[in-house]
Amino acid sequence: MTEAPAQTPLIDEDLSQDLATAALALARRFNAGATLWVVSPQWEPHAHHVAVEFVHPVIMGKRALPSVALVEPDPVAQCRVATRPGDVIIAVASADQPQVLDVMRRAPAWGADTIWIGSGPRPPAGGADHTLWVDSGDPMVPATGRFVLMYHLLWELTHVCFEHPGLLTPDAAECTETGCVTCSDEGRLGEVVLPPATAMDTALVRTATGDESVDVTVLGDVAPGDLVLVHGGAAISRVATATEAAR
């Protein structure tokens, strides 16, 4: 008598841990007043599905959470306008989707946390704050219940966190940010909004804390949309956009 082959779990241990971590971070952001923005340039129905999961809960007594699907042709421009510091962007897409790569690259300058849901080859390390991924080469995975199950569980686990209010505020011990020992500042990603009018002026740069006047003398000419590293009130280097990095 032969034994039946073991079935592959729909959600393995690694993905379970990733879901729990992402759900806690998302619950904390919602608790602090965040709006969730969802993009899926390849699979628009997924964007609508994720958004409606959060804004229209199917379980009695669960709170409705602010969530919007952004489905216009240019998700980068939509996210740029819609996102406020403290918000969250979820992308449902493959790892090579160029618009999503660009959104994820720019999101830290907008002050947004990011969650990337997909399958197949994984995004580059650090491509998003949280990655929820089905490691399968089957191109039909995004059309399966296994794929949808990921964001159903993300929604449910987020509400589990709300049932434990003590989890919703990070402990001081969890803060691991470090800064320059000389000026107490850290290198922060910024997106140029307006270049300087003259060589003596500063540029208007958007960072996670809002718009700032930044000295770009070291870099020379900059243009709207350029990504720069800001430290001590000055742009000290350029940061490649997703399009530039892919060249």
From TrEMBL:
An example GO BP is:
carbohydrate derivative metabolic process
- Give the GO molecular function terms: carbohydrate derivative binding
Give the signal sequence positions: none
InterPro entries reported in the protein's UniProt record? SIS_dom_sf (IPR046348)
Superkingdom of origin organism: Bacteria
The protein depicted here goes by the name HupF/HypC family protein
Q: Which organism is it from?
A: Rhodococcus tukisamuensis
